[in-house]
Design goal:
Elements lengths: L1 E8 L6 H11 L7 E6 L3 E7 L13 E3 L3 E9 L2 H7 L11 H12 L9 E9 L4 E6 L8 E4 L3 E5 L2 H5 L10 H8 L15 E2 L4 E6 L4 E5 L14 H19 L5 E5 L4 H16 L4 E6 L18 H9 L4 E6 L10 H8 L6 H17 L1 E5 L4 H4 L6 H8 L3 H13 L4 H9 L5 H12 L15 H4 L2 H9 L12 H9 L5 H12 L2 E3 L5 H9 L6 E2 L2 E2 L1 H7 L5 H4 L11 H7 L1 H9 L3 H6 L2 H9 L9 H24 L5
Parallel strand pairs: 13-14, 13-16, 14-15, 16-17
Antiparallel strand pairs: 1-3, 1-9, 2-3, 4-5, 5-6, 6-7, 7-11, 8-9, 8-10, 11-12, 18-19
Helix pairs in contact: 6-7, 6-21, 9-19, 12-14, 24-26, 26-27
Length: 645
């Protein structure tokens, strides 16, 4: 993993190297093993390498080819063998770093190169002949990349702090991005968390020209039809299993010990099981970390959700003699105690302060054990374990009534109520206001009128027509048409957020831990986009293909659990413990925070006891979501309002 940066003075000013030196120093926490730069006067590129792959010992960036192309790259290529074969480099591949293969690929395929890559990457390539600077990110944005465009200068960096090292770039939060975070809205467009700093969006190539033009191209087409050559249901099942195994194997490239996050859910269980099987063949152990609630804490009993995932995770761990199961309760940690450190390393406001407590503690424990790679399954609910409920609506829209009736009866036998079946099948076909009225009648009460009811927005913004139009443009809100196809659900969820790259960088800088997600593998994404809906919901069985592919690996108690796990279920007790810290943070909120947040409401919530007895929906939304996210945003604004000095 590499921190990259660069400066291009389009007017020929010759001090780009000096500015890149400042940027490299600022980015040093993200790459401490080797630092280097290429300086051509008006343009300079810099890197700071953290050696996390076996081939990183061959990394000699910045790289050059034919006195035309100059490259700095932050990447892990997962299709090295295929690329080397296509480029005629198989005989040399063992001594080539991933960046060497990338540069050779660009020499051969030019701007078509990103579409040939599998892995996590962000890179910058200077084309001296065309006088163009290309900035590129991977499909899901697992490596971050930012840029700043001024009148005659272009600068880019892995993290915003690299750009803030330049004195003329202001350090200030971006209000609209933070508003969207408060409203739980998806990320769209080039804006970042910081003013006047743009992000390269996931799956995008940004080309900066000598005349000042900025061209943004989506190199990955989400809407393109896909034929993976799979003809039978068995072919699809085998493909899912083999692709996950391949994705896990590619992310096991490491000379250091490996850990995994094992939540007791389907996705992390599939990843952990695949990793344990492969590591057992090498005679290597795997630490599997599971968050468990603090002993004696008051828990949030939310529907059928599992409040303590430790016992289920233990069932998976018990199947593998090489798994060391580690339960993490983070009892000596407190909500909000890491906010300053998080700001400086991650550079975004944490969205879930409850979960941040134990996520951070897992990283601390991995650091103590010398484990540098953490496997996760964050994207698995769309790529390997998608429920497929949208098939009911698809059958209704297509008039396939006998098949729909058969699935409805099968779901009913599996415990679904008729109301749930009808709502899932026909609800998305109704106008949103009709659906809202039906839900109100069925529930005997009015549901929240808008997602903003869960957000700590300044009341003046809640009814602001301009901001509501912005949310509608993002397809965000309860009044928008529901999702009607399985494929649309996959695309909507996978493109919702863009913080995983920042999370990876922050964990690397603070703990030396490299987070890798096999379920975010491009090959699995392509398969998810091409899956026939009947492989997701079939004979009343949701996630049908998951059960077929991994049934022999995953205990039934995990595969057939009634509800999802509720991580951070001990949040009522944790809020009580941190009440003074949370109130102090709100008391330090600057005027800029008051312009975005309902600080008076947040202050009231911070003073309210979480109470006793069962947690209500109102408490959950007010205290766990609205209060904690509001405090996170207020803290970010306060820390981001500082001078470069």
């Amino acid at each position: 993993m590499t921190a990259i940066c660069g400066v291009w003075h389009r007017d020929g000013r010759p001090d780009a190297g000096d500015q890149v030196a400042r940027m490299r120093r600022a980015l040093a926490p993200y790459g401490t093993d080797r630092s280097a730069a290429w300086d051509d006067g008006a343009i300079a590129l810099g890197i700071g390498l953290a050696r996390l792959l076996p081939e990183d010992r061959f990394d000699r960036q910045p790289l050059a080819a034919r006195d035309r192309f100059h490259l700095v790259a932050d990447l892990r290529l997962d299709n090295r063998a295929e690329l080397a074969d296509a480029l005629g480099l198989t005989g040399r591949a063992a001594t080539l770093a991933d960046a060497d293969l990338l540069l050779a690929a660009w020499e051969r395929w030019g701007t078509d190169t990103p579409d040939r890559l599998v892995g996590d990457f962000a890179f910058a390539l200077w084309d001296a002949a065309e006088r163009q600077l290309h900035l590129v990110r991977d499909l899901l944005g697992n490596r971050p990349l930012f840029y700043h465009v001024a009148d005659t200068r272009i600068a880019f960096a892995t993290m915003a702090r690299g750009l803030h090292a330049l004195p003329d770039i202001p350090v200030a939060p971006d209000p609209l991005t933070l508003l969207d975070c408060i409203a739980l809205a998806p990320r769209r467009g080039p804006r970042s968390f910081f003013a006047e700093i743009s992000r390269v969006e996931p799956g995008q190539r940004v080309t900066l020209h000598a005349d000042g033009r900025v061209a943004c191209v989506d190199w990955f087409d989400w809407d393109a039809p896909r034929d993976l050559g799979l003809r039978s249901d068995a072919d699809h099942v085998d493909a899912l299993r083999s692709l996950l195994d391949r994705a896990v194997a590619d992310r096991l490239r490491s000379d250091a010990a490996i850990g995994s996050h094992l939540s007791g859910g389907m996705d992390s269980s599939a990843v952990t099981a695949a990793a344990a099987l492969q590591l057992a063949e090498r005679g290597t152990r795997l630490s599997a970390y599971t968050h468990v609630p603090m002993a004696g804490a008051r828990l949030d009993h939310w529907g059928e959700r599992t409040l303590d995932e430790g016992p289920r995770a233990a069932l998976l761990a018990a199947r593998h003699a090489n798994i060391d199961h580690v339960r993490v309760d983070a009892a000596d940690r407190q909500i909000g105690d890491d906010l300053d450190a998080h700001f400086h390393a991650f550079e975004y406001p944490p969205f879930n302060l409850c979960n941040q407590v134990w996520l951070t503690e897992i990283c601390r424990q991995m650091q103590r054990r010398g484990e540098r790679v953490m496997l996760v399954g964050v994207m698995g609910n769309m790529t390997i374990s998608h429920q497929g409920i949208e098939r009911l609506t698809m059958l209704a829209r297509g008039g396939a009534w006998p098949t729909l009736l058969g699935e409805a009866l099968a779901l009913r036998r599996n415990g679904w109520t008729w109301r749930r079946v009808a709502s899932s099948a026909l609800g998305p076909l109704l106008p949103p206001h009709w659906l809202e009225r039906i839900r109100r009648l069925a529930n005997g009460k009015s549901p929240p009128l808008d997602l903003l009811a869960y957000a700590a927005l300044n009341p003046a913004l809640v009814d602001d027509p301009e901001y509501r139009a912005h949310l509608a443009h993002l397809d965000h809100g309860l009044h928008l048409p529901p999702i009607r196809t399985t494929r649309d659900r996959v695309v909507r969820v996978l493109r919702h957020s863009d913080v995983m790259g920042l999370t990876q960088k922050g964990q690397l800088a603070r703990f030396g831990v490299d987070q890798r997600d096999p379920t975010a593998d491009r090959r699995l994404v392509e398969l998810a986009l091409a899956l026939p809906p009947h492989l997701l919901l079939r004979d009343g069985q949701t996630r049908w293909i998951y059960h077929q592919a991994f049934g022999a690996r995953i205990p039934d108690a995990i595969r057939f659990q009634a509800g999802k796990g509720l991580q951070g279920a001990d949040w009522p007790t944790r809020i009580e413990q941190a009440r003074g810290t949370l109130a102090d943070e709100l008391g330090r909120a600057p005027p800029a925070a008051a312009a975005l947040l309902d600080l008076s409401r947040l202050t009231t919530l911070a003073a309210q006891p979480t109470g006793t007895g069962r947690v209500t929906d109102t408490q959950r939304y007010d205290q766990r979501i609205k209060l904690l996210r509001g405090i996170s945003i207020a803290h970010f604004i306060r820390k981001a309002q500082r001078s470069n000095d």
